């Protein structure tokens, strides 16, 4: 962090300074945290044999650290650490303008550049797994059987420091050219959100307890 | 395509052969097309200055070609072509097992590896833009002002051949260990889907036509 970076912002880096749409970029810490915490799905990018690879995986934030469920990227981790770019994207709306050119998407995204490392300490790996489970369903980690030693060893958890970070946000209505305002095409925003359906209990012959409150809340939220 | 690859499948390549969870991988063409066509959001990975970069952008399929809205990746395209990995992911459900270890996500994803090139021919760029607009809102390209020459020149559209392609799918309920079936934790699947809210007309003082049928259908779908 440089002297010119306020404590509530991340310091811009070459990797997080876009060449286009600069007005949409932010380094605000609270905004970044909100975008990261608002979903569990991220896309993990790394270089394998000189070529880019992008895999969907799960993430969870713990302060200024990001945990990643790393089993799918494990083959690239042979050397214990891996330069990565982790991207989290929320689509908030479809922006329909009267001109094709001004069509857009309302979105919030975060890019995190850095070096991912495998969490090897057992206690920390356990805490990281709980954080990941709770990121998907808040409250769930306390309501399931914790991983035993064998399971823990079979689960690769990566960690990544939040340092080279930027957010990008597009919000609001379409920006049609003045000359197009009279055109007879509907214009505006179609809001997009993630919805949860009715939970389907496991059909495995096992226990069938009542749906817990934290799951009922997840559906309503 | 090799002699052992059926015409309804993509040929496996080193880049599309995972080292883990092999049973979830498919090269089925129809499955791949369905996953690509089911959303407009993709994550575009490339290598810049030796480091991975993952940007969210829009995609649309036209036969065995993928179009990408490329403005955000334009800086990497200086040499006219760019090795990329394009990943499309649908989250279909949260899988809650009685053990932390067997928690999972039901998802469908596609990875496309290849070399993206900028579409420079004006007629093809125009058709590609229509395809992208219709991928976001089917039917929309015919109901807006088409891009003029200046707008077309300002829009970078990339194309990518569908050749090195694989899909990965996880579906169904949790797979708890038999010893855990009696544990008193709710287990099953919480379905996840994308929902559309009530459209918000532009507040720009311009025309206010009635909501067209293709948008009403998008909300209902």
From TrEMBL, chains A, B:
Residues 1-19 have a biased composition (Low complexity). Residues 1-22 are annotated as: Disordered. It holds the Pfam family Pyridox_ox_2. Transmembrane segments: none annotated. Gene3D superfamilies: Electron Transport, Fmn-binding Protein, Chain A. This is Pyridoxamine 5'-phosphate oxidase family protein. It comes from Streptomyces chisholmiae.
């Amino acid at each position: 962090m440089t002297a010119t970076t306020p404590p509530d912002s991340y310091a811009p880096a070459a990797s997080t300074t876009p060449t286009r749409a600069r007005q949409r970029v932010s380094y605000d810490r609270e905004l970044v945290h909100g975008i990261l915490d608002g979903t569990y799905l991220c896309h993990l990018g790394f270089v394998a044999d000189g070529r880019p690879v992008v895999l969907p995986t799960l993430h969870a934030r713990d302060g200024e650290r990001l945990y990643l469920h790393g089993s799918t990227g494990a083959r690239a981790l042979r050397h214990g650490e891996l330069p990565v770019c982790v991207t989290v994207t929320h689509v908030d709306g479809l922006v329909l303008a009267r001109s094709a050119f001004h069509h857009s998407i309302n979105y919030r995204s975060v890019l995190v550049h850095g070096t991912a490392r495998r969490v090897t300490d057992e206690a920390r790996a356990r805490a990281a797994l709980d954080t990941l489970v709770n990121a998907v369903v808040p409250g769930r980690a306390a309501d399931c059987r914790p991983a035993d030693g064998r399971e823990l060893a079979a689960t690769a958890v990566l960690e990544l420091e939040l340092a080279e970070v930027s957010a990008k946000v597009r919000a609001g209505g379409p920006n049609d050219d003045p000359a197009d305002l009279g055109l007879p095409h509907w214009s505006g925003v179609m809001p997009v959100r993630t919805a949860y359906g009715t939970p389907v209990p496991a059909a495995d012959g096992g226990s069938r307890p009542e749906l817990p409150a934290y799951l009922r809340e997840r559906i309503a939220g």
